[in-house]
Amino acid sequence: MDVENKYDDSRMRGFRPSFRALTLIIVVIWIGVAALYALLKPISNGCIMTYMYPTYIPISTTGGETSAKYGLYLYHEGWRKIDFQEHLKKLSGVPVLFIPGNGGSYKQVRSVAAESDRAFQGGPLEHTFYQETYLTPEEGGADMDIASFQLPNRYSYRLDWFAVDLEGEHSAMDGRILEEHTEYVVYAIHRILDQYKESRDVREREGAAGTGSLPKSVILVGHSMGGFVARAATIHPRLRKSAVETILTLSSPHQFPPVALQPSLGCYYESINEEWRKGYEVQTSRTGRYVSDPVLSHVVVVSISGGYNDYQVRSKLETLDGIVPPTHGFMISSTGMKNVWLSMEHQAILWCNQLVGQVSHTLLSLIDSRTGQPFTDTRQRLAIFSRLLRSGIPQSFNWKMQSQSSWSTNVVKDVKNPSGSQLHTLSGCPSNVHWNDDVLERDLYIQTTTVTILAMDGRRRWLDIRKLGSNGKSHFIFVTNLAPCSGVRLHLWAEKGTPNSDLPASKKKVLEVTSKMVQIPAGPAPRQIEPGSQTEQPPPSAVFQLRPEEMNGFRFLTISVAPRLTVSGQPPPANSMAVGQFFNPEEGNTELSPKSMLLAAYSHKDIFLKEDHPLVFNLSFATSLGLLPVTLSLKTAGCGIKNSGLPGEEADDAENSRLCKLRCFPPVALAWDPTSGLHVFPNLQSETIVVDSSPVLWGSTTLEKTTVLLLVDPHCSYQTNIAISLSGAASRFLLLYGSQMVGFSIAVIFFALMRQAHTRPIPSILEVMESNLRIPFPFLALSIVPILISLFLSYLISQALPPFMSFTVISVICYLFANGFVILLILVSQLVFYVAAYLHVFIKRRWQLWEGNFCFSFLQWFINLCSGFLSLKVIGVLRANPLYVPVSAAITLSTFVHPALGLLILLLSHALCCHDALCNSLIASFRTHARRMELSDHKAQGNYRSQQFASKPGSPSKENSSSYGQTQEDIFHYRHGLLVLHLLGALMFVPSLISWLQRIGMHQSFPRFVDSSLCICLILHGIFSSEPLFDYSFSFPRVLGQKVRLNFIYLLAGLCSFISALASTPYKAFYAIGAVGAISFALSISPRWTGAPRLGRRRYSLKR
């Protein structure tokens, strides 16, 4: 009786989760719901739509199957109907090939192509005199002659936009599709270059004079996976030499696939990136002698990221670090792009007018007006990208550690090139910006550290650097909405009587520093509260900063404001503002530790800024806002307006806020992140500050702190509130580490199978997972040891170590989340099996009650008639070897059709076996229960002793029934664990299966060998490891004096899967699954090869 109760209790424990597991499930569900809530909220990106009149001209293609399956088009902008052949004859521009991404269309080229046509006709952007960005010393800027760097004031050649039609295939899901797209892009590049030659030949035959030279290269612009295809095509062995020299990618993953699950896709990525790394190395012989320059020395790559609103591809995947050296490429976020300043969704980056307009002008500026081709010098092309895409704001901010740029790089002037066209180089404000000198005689001498300008009064304000910059206030900052040169000019003056020899080198007695003003995005224009009343303070559009070393040797700083009515013919702003201040950067620094940030999730952190505070307030967050976004609110508490003391005036916050808007400019937040760069949040009132960073991954060299710089009016006091956005944190967590969870989940299952393999009777998969969560052991051992191994591997390969504490904490959190997800998956699948088994047993018992029915007799006769089919010899062989059918079907489908279909057969085999074992276990349990009830009735009637040994013919004894039920339950638990493991493996191929289903009816190719072979190994593991009572402890290489058992193999596989997840390559966890399958297969057939006797198995039978 006690044995039977214990057997029933074990079944209930296998189905009832513990409090620890239930807590994990609740946390996983909450994170999933919160993330969905944050991700499904509508996004306001501020983009302007781009309008066009598209026409797509097909380009005839002749080639193999790939060229026949895909297509090539030439874009034409205009509403008039044109003759395609006549238009192709006039082809004489610079070829640009657009490559769509995952599921994209060739028609997505229309926005950037239409904007390029308008940019060519309208000419370059209006020149401003803000500080511009040039190449850093790491990018080769130290050796570049900036004086020779010139941008034309008109475009001489237009861009001819081509686009490849890749049938909307999902290239992000399958490596084979990605390879086919690469091959067709190579063909399309050659076809485009040949088309220019054909067009020129036609013009010459018709007597038209040829102009310019034929293009030798094609500019590639790729969106999403199209950017990676562009890089893969560049190193393709069949590509013509120097056919690609410039690549621009939009939201393209370069480091890893966005869904890194398919092994062949990950291998293809690794091979392409490795070829690119070697492509920038100098070619040498085996003896080390120089052979040739790097193969890719002429190729420039620029990657544009969509920022934190791009949920499909994170900025960490879009970086070129370790692939392209800084001298040949860089990555920039759209949030820090000049004239853009916006984060946008994955598809919006194709039509956002601010971005495609800036990209169009950048590509047009790459054309050399003398040759009609892109500049051959890689540094010049990279410098053009840097100057037209980057803003003057540094990508990383630190007041004391900013590198001091030379004075010759901070000013602009106009010169003439040899052809007579006007070009922009570096000097002071140009001479055509003329002011009325008489007005500037009215000088003002500022006596306070803060200077305010409320109108364009034409006055010059003098600030004594020695006097106002004392007491540690050695830095000067100035914010304004006035344009440099035309609205405001700044100069440094040496003290009268100071000889030039006493000044620092390359400095004059009067030095104009106006061009050090950096443009920032301005918020909405100020509104007028009432007709005829004063307008609100306008937002700043520029910031100017001087460090102590830049003011060294000078006595005065002057701020000259232009007269309102003579601003070089330009309309003045509706309202003018400017605020400058000498300040101490240490006074405005506030650091938030990880602990304070976590506490802010429950209780908001308040910071009060009194009046006359520093204009610059620096917030340093120890944990990246890419992981813990914060909601930053600034509420104006006061602005120097005193209450009269009358009743009703004491608590009128709305009126006080309205008056303060007339006095104080709107706050601006500038966030710097090591990965995604600059993010600007103008008109900050209440905003969720988030950056697109991927902190504490394996390979991260810094803690990736986020620095937020607040520009706030010193005349006003502010109540600052900082709170953690929980829904934003949940969504960022899943976006950053979602794909890695697959690797962690596989490791969790392997650790559970490890414990199952050496425990008898076999516990349920849920029980062993709960036991693995016990603290301190084995949880700490299973979660910390792989992390230590990964750090040791980093040390061995001389890779920079990530921050230990944050790396460990995040990795353990991911491991816990994976445990919760797997437990939830186990509970759901187990519930399905129990419901199906109870229904099956119920129907079977009802069936037995219908045995005397006429309908049942007829059905029994029909079944007996059909059973003759089962007497066939082939059917007999299959019944004697039931594994032949699923094994052969699964392997055939995995090899010749698709691996996911073979894994589906394996999952069905597992499911049927689990269902059969559970049904047998329930039937045995019911019979035992019925036997117990029968014995109880006999005992109550006084006949217990005489009947306890009596049994019905054919019925099992109590001991045999319980033993049989336990055996069936062991089989169910073991096969259930294998089912969950192989289900995760099959889910890794679901994206590839979706792309395969899309191509049904088209040209199909066999699966990649690496995918098929790994899936076959997984199938072998599922088939030959399906008997839980088989002992694997026979002869095998010994380790530390012990025989290697199956549980040790599972442990090694779990460690490998864990480490692959840490390395952001979860597809490598499939290698561990394949290795376990191969070893299991080898252990199963080794007794037949060696002639060793197979160990016995415990089998239990139940007579019926």
Automatic annotation (TrEMBL):
Cell location: Endoplasmic reticulum membrane
Any GO BP annotation: protein transport
Coiled-coil stretches noted in the UniProt entry, renumbered to this chain: none
Record SUPFAM superfamilies: alpha/beta-Hydrolases
Domain of life: Eukaryota
Sequence segments annotated as region (Disordered): 938-964
Keyword Magnesium: no
Transmembrane segments: 21-40, 734-754, 775-797, 809-842, 854-878, 884-908, 978-997, 1009-1032, 1044-1063, 1069-1089
Listed name of the protein: GPI inositol-deacylase
Lineage: Eukaryota, Viridiplantae, Streptophyta, Embryophyta, Tracheophyta
